[in-house]
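Researcher: We're teaching a course module on how sequence relates to structure. For the next exercise, students receive a sequence and then see the predicted structure as tokens, so they can try to spot secondary structure elements on their own. Here is the exercise chain.
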Amino acid sequence: MVKENRIHIVSALILSTMILNVLTFYTPLVETAGAQQEHKRTFLSPAVTTISSVTDNSINGTSSAGQTIQNETVTYYDNASGYLVFPVSNSLNNATVATEKLPAVIMIHENRGLNNNIKKTADILAKQGYVVLAVDLFQGQVTADPNRARELSSAVRNNPGIAIENMKSAVAYLSSLQNVNASRIASVGWCFGGGQSLQLALNSEDQPLAATMIYYGQVVNDTGELSKIKWPVLGIFGDQDQSISVDSVRAFEQALNETGVTNEVYIYPGVGHAFANPSNDNYAPEETADAWQKTLAFLKKYV
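Model: And here is the predicted structure for the students to work with:
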């Protein structure tokens, strides 16, 4: 009888151990699946914009989570306020502005204005070691209404002089900062901002830039105009873009080559306009990640 009880006790212990092992094995799988599902929901959230949809840790294979940044609102042109963000050095008690001269980037918003999404993108770029000034070409106006967005962008295109002076003042402002290397300032913009990034390049002969980056913005193929650019140009486009045709992009690339402007032009197959913006129906996460890798590599190479 005692022997039989011992057998039952041993069997119970073995069964308990087996159940524990099964739970130990499957619990991480359940947690991982849950984490992946949560990541998927975050990744596809319309509240995240362009590059912000892909974490700065995964875009270039390195982590910049330890890089501390500081931001502030600055007035850089008449009544225009921009979002300035830059790396700072960590100390035991506080963070101080980096004393070394850093490369800088003028960031130009889409036709929705200088919203929180653009600021988040500026934060991500600043963590890569850049001083970033996100400019405001809409006098403080931000909208999610596409009709209003078209009105705001059209107003700038119909009177381009003010926006050009705005952006040139942004370059001058960055040049004046103690933590900025004035010879290493670039510009980047998406959609409406992409076209404005090119316009800044075409009007910066007196304040040469280090690089110009354009995400599916309006381009030109006038070699006389493009010959004003004396620095490298990066272009990111989609071959299904109904606003910026492949033919116009190819003509732009050919004109850059004819004028001797160093350039990298990429046309992603199967994606349309604003493919790097997850709030857009054309959002393409894989192409967005790849385009951002190319952007960081371009900056590292030329700025």
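Model: If you want an answer key for the exercise: The CA atoms of residues 50 and 156 lie 22 Å apart. Residues 2-43 form the longest helix (42 residues).
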